Amino acid sequence: MTARLRVGVAGVHGHGRRHVEAVLASPDLELVAVADPRGGGDVPSATRVFVDAVDMLDAADLDIVVLSTPIPTHAGLARLALSRGAHVLLEKPPVPSVADHHALVTAADAASRAVQVGFQSLGSAGVAATADAAASGIIGEVLHYGAVGQWARSEEYWRRAPWAGHRVIDGLPVADGVVTNPLAHAIATALAIAGAAAPEDVVAIDADLRRANDIETDDTSSLVVDLRGGARVAAGLAATARDRHEPYVLARGTRGFLVYVYTLDTLHVHRDGAALPRTYAFERTELLADLVRHIRGGDELLAPLGRTGAFTRVLEEIVTGPPPTPIASALVRVEASAGETFRVVTGVEDAVERVAWEARTFRDLGVL
């Protein structure tokens, strides 16, 4: 019988708790250690609890390290885990700069260990299927790709942690804006479908960042990304909508369009002249289970670090570029719901849709 892989999880509260539960539910894994300055939470008595992730990596013999920690810690902790002989599941956004991306890829190669990035949407078979459909000619020539995200995030959300709502703290990138954190999957999925993986696949970025909340980073943004080979990705993303809508990736063609709803793993094919779209549903593989299969049998990873370099190039541009522009107060409504306060931007739903469908920023569209 194959021995269970020994796992350590750093960051076990909030989203990190999902990783703890996934490890505990897997017959292939053993939760050997956890690390969190707020305590270990509800874990088995045999699990070692550390306050500091570095102490966990130094003291525990681990096969897999899950890092669900603030972004400024990602690169250093991942490199340390690799040097200790562990494979890594690294939460998104993976690293704050292209230089960190290249350095971590090099470290993983040198250690002969894998780094899987927690972009859950890339675990779906629908990503490759949508890319194949776009390339097949079923919607004619692809004019551009797009991404649309409309979520509602409260003022309290932007105060959920000391780093929340910041671009940089103490000189270190945090990147907690709508493009790079809450709706980062929209960008990562659109880039994957468009065929962009490496930082060098991105040749130009026109980012128009806005904010309605009193934060350092963006909560309502548009960007147009030009890729090597001529493809273009346009994204309209907002955490200031009245209601949450399922985000999607668009491929707009000369004879129709594709809509891939990545949260639901469904592809809708709209062909010119067809009375109704055709809809396809796909299976999704959990990224921790995928990492286990890679370790056991050498299967190719679904979300390897090397596949996320284009996303990191976009993130770096946003963090180092001009700060977001405040949205005019006349366009912002303050609403209360379930004990939280929301800033809702009038017309934002139409604006983000237009960005994706017309491949123009808010600035170029003359909206917001």
Question: Which helices and strands occur, and which strands form pairs?
Answer:
Blueprint lengths: L4 E6 L5 H10 L3 E7 L12 E3 L2 H7 L4 E4 L6 H10 L3 E4 L7 H14 L3 E3 L7 H11 L6 E11 L15 E2 L2 E2 L10 H11 L7 E10 L8 E8 L4 E7 L1 E14 L2 E6 L4 E6 L6 E4 L5 H11 L11 H12 L4 E2 L5 E6 L2 E6 L2 H11 L3 H4 L3
Parallel strand pairs: 1-2, 1-4, 2-3, 4-5, 5-6, 7-12, 10-17
Antiparallel strand pairs: 7-13, 8-9, 10-11, 11-12, 13-14, 14-15, 15-16, 18-19
Structural class by helix and strand composition: alpha/beta
Distance between the termini: 61 Å
Radius of gyration: 21 Å
**Helix and strand sequence:** EHEEHEHEHEHEEEHEEEEEEEHHEEEHH
Can you give the mean pLDDT?
A: 96
- Helical content (DSSP H or I, runs of 4+): 25-40%
* Number of E-state strands: 19
How would you sum up the global shape?
A: globular
Strand order of the largest sheet: 16-15-14-13-7-12-11-10-17
Q: Which stretches of 5+ consecutive residues score pLDDT under 50?
A: none
Strand content: 25-35%
User: Sheet with the most strands?
Assistant: 9 strands, mixed
Work out the helix count: 10
